[in-house]
Amino acid sequence: MRLFFHHRAVSGEIIDEVGLEVEDLDQALAVAIANVRRVVSNEASRGRLDLRGRVDVADYTGNTLSTVRFEECFTGDLVEGYRTES
Predict the structure, then answer these.
(1) Does 72 reside within a domain?
(2) Residue 29 falls within a domain, yes or no?
(3) How far, in whole angstroms, is CA 11 from its chain's centroid?
């Protein structure tokens, strides 16, 4: 199935217009987590750390199937300050 990974953050959003073929939603979530970790790692290397973003995983109709919050992709004391109430 082809799913789309829309990145949304305080600094703006990137709408995925191409998508990626994945086996199932579990694989899509693993892709989203890996993407978040890569993006945050790149930002941290430039001295910026903001975990308030999210990735919305959507189908071809635009229906959001799942949301991965940046803060959920990391563990540690620093991350605790970013935790939001559910």
Answers:
(1) yes
(2) yes
(3) 14
Mean pLDDT of the chain: 90
Average pLDDT over residues 5-34: 96
Q: Is there a domain that residue 86 lies in? A: no
Q: Which of 54, 47, 85 is nearest to 71 (CA)?
A: 54
* Count of CA atoms in the C-beta half-sphere (13 A) of 11: 9
Q: How many domains, the chain?
A: 1
pTM of structure: 0.83
Q: Among 36, 1, 35, 3, which Cα is nearest to 19's?
A: 3
* Distance separating alpha carbons of residues 49 and 42, to the nearest angstrom: 9
Name the pLDDT band for 86 (thresholds 50, 70, 90).
very low
Task: List CB contacts of 41: < 8 A, sequence separation 6 or more.
Answer: none
The pair of structure tokens assigned to 74 is: 């990391």
